[in-house]
Structures are given as structure tokens and as C-alpha cells.
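for the writeup, i need someone to sanity check this before i put it in the appendix. the sequnce is what the collaborator sent (i think, or maybe the updated version? ugh). structure was predicted straight from it, no edits. if anything looks off just tell me and ill rerun, i have time this weekend
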Amino acid sequence: MENSIGLEKLMPYLLKTHLKLDLDFLNKLLVDASKSNKPHGNQEFAKAIKCPVNKNKKLAMTVYGWIKGYRTVPLSKLGVIIELSKYSWKDVEENLISIKAGIRKGEICPRFPIKVDEGLGSIVGHILGDGAIDKRGHYVFYSNSNINLLKEFRLHMLDIFGIEPRIWVQEKRLFHEKTKWMKRVYTLSEVPRGHNVGLFYPKICVDVLYALFGKFAEGKKKKITKKIMDSNKEFKIGLVRAFFDDEGSISSKSYTLRLHQDNPLILNSIKNILNELGIKSNILRSSFRREKFRYYFNITGYDGYAKFYKFIGCTSPKKNKEFVLLIKKVKNSVKFKNKVFFDSPISNNSNTRA
């Protein structure tokens, strides 16, 4: 996969998407494509872009709506308009104001081309972890009680999609109890301490993510697609880091660094990614808890701990603290007294992010 993806590459997957463009630019584009000062009056142009013409007024009222700014332009029609003009997709990207799924609400303001980087990997990793894509409403959802992880997800979504989430606070509950929403808040600073929080994002975010990586999550079904596996190193580091923050555990007392989830196929893909990054992991195992199988694998040994910490790390301050303790304990143990160690970055705090 390329390191950055523009609108043109995403167009076949987003044909029903609507765009809001800078009006001055849009009018220049329509005039150039139609070769007319009144694009809405050019019936040949309307026919070429498959827009209906009002029989009485002999005008393409849809095009008129674009010119006046009270209608948004479908991406499918925009592709034809660009072909008829001297303008490029780069020009469109530079003059893009917002994008939404169809004519419905839920606008986002992404910056194209979209970079396939660690931030985007973090979003996908969190969705594969404690997040979800709703099967019915097709919205992005991320849930956690760790404020650092919530801030991380919010910042990456804001950076890539240019949108703030709807934030809902959950009532405190036991593990087996059904989720109950307590109230809506408007910033993460308003969240009561210790409560689980849900961050919600509109359908258009899902459409873009699916266009980039395929249908990697829908309801309870999650998988690591070929497009994800074909992505670059930075993206994969972000994915594994977020997934570990959500689905991993570390204990300096029991010398345990573990990643676990109900889906063994996802864990096997994570193992393959770690292997690509030069980090060895143990075989996949299972345990039977709460009337179902739970799968996990461990990373053991100083070299594995130190490489995971240095190249991937974690956002959770609690996990980061345990990481430092674990690496120091193993390094200072009698068993490893005379061993030359992999250089670990314990002295700096770059692995803990807000």
C-alpha cells in the first residue's frame, strides 16, 4: 500500500459520498468543464454528468444548487467533471471544505492525501481492540475508561478526519452487566473519574476506513485484512501499540508480557506483524473463562521485552511503568548478570503519550 492515498484512489469506493468545495473554485471548475459561463444552462454538459434538466426552465437545477452552495457534489459526478476540465484531483483536495456520506449529516474535514502512518494505524488498532464499527448504523465507536487512550484516539481522529466525537459516559457496572449510558459530555475533561466512556464518529469515517483497508470490523466480526498486512512499518507499529494498550497486559511480578483476545486469527496476524518487526513471540495458547475460550500469546526474555518497548511501546502510563520495572528486573537478575543486552530506552519517557 502507498504511504499516502488521495481522493482519486478512493473514488471507486466512495461513489455515494458528497463533497463541499470552496464556491469560487467550484464555479471555476464548472465553467471550465462545461465551457460555458452558465454551466447550469448547458444541457449537453448536464447530459454528460447525468444531471436532470428542468423542462420548463431548461436548466439543470442540481448544477445550479452546486453553484449557489446549497447542494453538495457527489464524488461520482465530480470525477466526470474533472475529466472534462483542466483541473486536477490535487486542486479539488486543496479546495475541499468537507465530505459526508450521501446527503445526510455527519460532515468531516479530512486532509487529503491521507497519510498511512502511525496515527492511522493507532485508529485501526483501537477499533480492533476495544473499539467497534456498528453493524446497523455503521458508525465508529471507541470505548475505554483510560483517559490517556481516549485522548489518543480523539487526537488521531481529529488529525486525520478533522472531527470531534460525540462523547457519552457510561454508568459504572460489573463486567457481565449490560452497558447503560449515564449522560453526554462535550469534552473529555468533563468525564467523571473511573467511568467508561464511548466516543462516537459518523458513517463517513467508516466509509473512508473501509475504502483504505477493506471491511476489517463490523459488529462483533473483526479481522486483519490483506490491505492492513500490506501497509507500511509505521502504520503497523501504531496498530500493534494501540491493540496492546487495549488487549494486552504486562506484569513485572510474574514476568509476563501478553496479548490476548477472543479471535485467534487476529492474534496470529499480530504475531506475524511482530515477526516482521523483528520481535519474537511464543505460540498461541488458549484458556477457558466465562464459558468461552480466550486466546493469548506471550513475549518472553529480555530481548523481546526491550524490543517491544523500544519499537512499539504503549500509551498507558500504568503499562509503561510495569514495562520499565520488568526490563530492569530481568536485566539485573543473576541469570543475566554477564549477558550483553539489547540497548533499551528506559532512560527516556518517549513511550508514554498523552
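Residues 344-350 have pLDDT under 50 and may be disordered. The two ends are 29 Å apart (CA to CA).
thx in advance!!
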